[in-house]
Design brief:
The chain is mainly beta. It is built from 1 helix and 9 strands.
């Protein structure tokens, strides 16, 4: 299943578009949305001698938040002092003093979507130094992990390069590191 998904993400077609990585910060805009509601897009990017060591791709996508639609009140005891009591090697905390208070709690929740922006870092610090008119082309797959998350699964594939690369996502970060394989 995973191989099929990767094949779909990296197949040529309407999901890819060219992007010259010639600035440190670039605005990609709103990511496409799959049928399951998750943001997903494959970018075909071109690296050249003018590409900075670190490129930040700013993307916009929908993120779901839990929103309370119905609230209620209830009375709760707020203990201010505790006095432990022990009986036959068994101890409990006995409430000695306190007061009643009213708290509000949520009865029903609804998920709402909001547009949020996130920067994805492409790290070329350990990539091959390009000279003259040399360029490299990569396909980068950006996939939102969950509807309520700002985290992405990032993967890349070499389309055209003179050197072998290993592209890895830093765990828990929206960062993709391009390392030249020696």
């Amino acid at each position: 299943m995973k191989i099929l998904l990767l094949a779909l993400f990296f197949s040529a077609g309407a999901h890819a578009f060219d992007l010259d990585l010639n600035q440190e910060e670039m605005n990609i805009g709103v990511l496409q949305v799959r049928s399951d509601g998750l943001a997903s897009q494959v970018l075909e990017v071109r690296r050249s001698v003018s590409t900075p060591e670190n490129v930040y791709l700013n993307v916009t996508f929908k993120k779901e938040y839990k929103y309370c639609t119905k609230e209620a009140n209830r009375r709760v005891w707020i203990a201010t002092e505790y006095s432990p009591s022990c009986d036959d090697n068994r101890c409990t905390n006995g409430r000695v003093a306190g007061h009643w208070s009213t708290e509000t709690y949520c009865l029903e929740y609804k998920m709402i979507g909001r547009d949020v922006s996130e920067a994805i870092k492409l790290d070329f610090d350990n990539a091959v130094t390009l000279v003259g008119n040399e360029e490299e082309i990569f396909a980068i797959a950006i996939n939102q992990r969950e509807k309520s998350s700002s985290d992405f699964n990032l993967s890349a594939k070499v389309i055209r390069a003179n050197n072998p690369y290993e592209m890895t996502q830093k765990k828990g970060k929206n960062k993709l590191k391009f390392e030249f394989q020696k």
